[in-house]
Design a protein that fits this description.
Elements lengths: L4 H75 L8 H14 L5 E5 L3 E6 L6 E14 L2 H13 L4 E11 L13 E14 L5
Antiparallel strand pairs: 1-3, 2-3, 3-5, 4-5
Length: 202
């Protein structure tokens, strides 16, 4: 097909416009591709920041829960008077109440001098664990008397009571019809543990 000069002049303007449109389209595609790449990178960074922030929030929530759990234990120890100086008068009162309440025939005890178990460093002050060993000698009608005595002692508070050892022996006494005779005797070593928080406000 032969194109005349007049026809060529007529086609020149549309051809130029077409070329310009093609160029503009290519430039627009490249611009969109570059903006898409930037947006993709920004989205990736935003997702990473979001994941990091969520992980940080979860870590803070875990730490807060752990602190609350430890605080609950600390407050419970305060309520039981485990934290603070030892309370020998309260221990004596508790032993007297238990003997009377349980109608124990014979209950004798001796509390040794307080000794430092361990000192745990902390901020702002150390936490010291002390132990005073109570040696108990108790007459029993049956082994249930000992278990109830130990339960009452733990429930009395004023220390954490850790039973180190208990030994039960038979007394060899035969029962009589006129009086109740304890046929068992228990000797126990019980550690009365108290905690002294150096940073606590008095």
């Amino acid at each position: 097909m032969i194109v005349t000069a007049q026809e060529a002049r007529k086609l020149a303007l549309p051809a130029i416009a077409f070329a310009l449109l093609i160029g503009a389209g290519v430039a627009l595609i490249e611009f969109v591709d570059s903006r898409l790449a930037v947006a993709t990178r920004e989205l990736t960074v935003a997702k990473a920041h979001h994941a990091e922030a969520r992980e940080r929030l979860m870590r803070i929530a875990d730490e807060e829960r752990e602190v609350n759990e430890k605080l609950a234990v600390y407050r419970r120890l305060q309520q039981l008077h485990v934290i603070g100086p030892e309370r020998r008068l309260e221990w004596a009162d508790a032993m007297s109440r238990i003997k009377t309440g349980r109608e124990l025939l014979d209950l004798r005890y001796r509390v040794d001098r307080q000794a430092l178990l361990v000192s745990v460093p902390g901020k702002p002050g150390n936490v010291d664990f002390y132990s005073s060993t109570m040696k108990v000698d108790i007459a029993l009608l049956h082994t249930g008397d000992l278990l109830r005595f130990l339960e009452d002692l733990r429930n009395s508070g004023n220390a954490y009571y850790a039973v180190r050892r208990c030994e039960i022996t038979r007394t060899g006494q035969a029962p009589t019809g006129t009086s109740i005779v304890p046929r068992l005797r228990a000797t126990c070593d019980i550690d009365l543990i108290t905690i002294l928080d150096r940073a606590a406000k008095s």
